[in-house]
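Open question from group meeting: does this chain pack into something compact, or does most of it stay loose? Before anyone orders reagents, we agreed to write out a predicted structure and look at it together. Recording both the input and the output here so the notebook holds the full record.
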Amino acid sequence: MDELKEQPWLPCSCAVTSGLLIFACGALLGLVFAITRTGQSGSGSVESAASPTPVVQSVSAVVPQAGGEGQTIFQQKCTACHTIGSGDLVGPDLEGVVARRDEDWLTRWITTPDQMLAENDPIATQLLQQYNNIPMPNLSLTQSQVAAVIAYLQSTDQGQSLPPVVAAPALPQGDPAAGKELFTGNRRFQSGGPPCMACHSVSGIGVLGGGVLGPDLTQVFSKYGGETGLGTFLSTMPLPTMNTVWGQRPLASQEQADLMAFLGQVAVSERSPEAILQLSALTIIGTAAVLALTHLIWRYRLAGVRRPLVGQRSRALTAQR
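Structure tokens returned:
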């Protein structure tokens, strides 16, 4: 009887406990990584899961008016990361790029940069390393749009007279506190767009952070070259995913300024060790609660089966004695 009394109902419970401990360690490491990660920015350089290889259209086949169309596309899609003759921004200065690069290579690079990076194209890889590992995004441009952009770049190299680039209006003074409220959703955007926190995380918004669908934006202010690059990005939203959400719901000037002030403020800060410790403590407490609940459940789960077996064995031992 003493031997039977000492037999625990714990084999299954121990297995479950061990599994949960392994899971908890993995979850803790994953959460700490998520808190400390430096997200990859969704923008890159034109000189810096693949799609089909594009059919190259020669720039020489583009009509002269394409330079004007190309300028419009460039202002909408490219100025967040590039200048022409004003120095590097997020990506390189594109002055003279048509002369430096082969036309077929440049056409394919603007059309499917993700594919060329996946193929480890040597020029694309070198540019990625040179410009802070910020990949050139696939802007989903058509062949005619790409040809128009190249024609515009070519016309600037040739000194042709084109309509002047319209400078973005100066933004008002930004309020970091208001920007934080817009980012977290405590204050709604005037256009009704979703809060940034739905897809992005950033330092300074609490222990649990924000969304993980998009990159972490803690260092986006410096990656985009400060107010000039980030301001242009917020006013144009050139990336396809962002443009789908914000194309018909542009940010107001004051909202842009507030968000930029908030992102500029968090860019000089890091996630505090206290935040990581708090998240670790929450993970440990949650795991302990799950283990305790699992033990209670498994403790009585098979009692109706085990007790008759134990009783039968006890009676057999008693009869033998």
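Observations to bring back to the group:
Residues 1-13, 32-65 have pLDDT under 50 and may be disordered.
The two ends are 12 Å apart (CA to CA).
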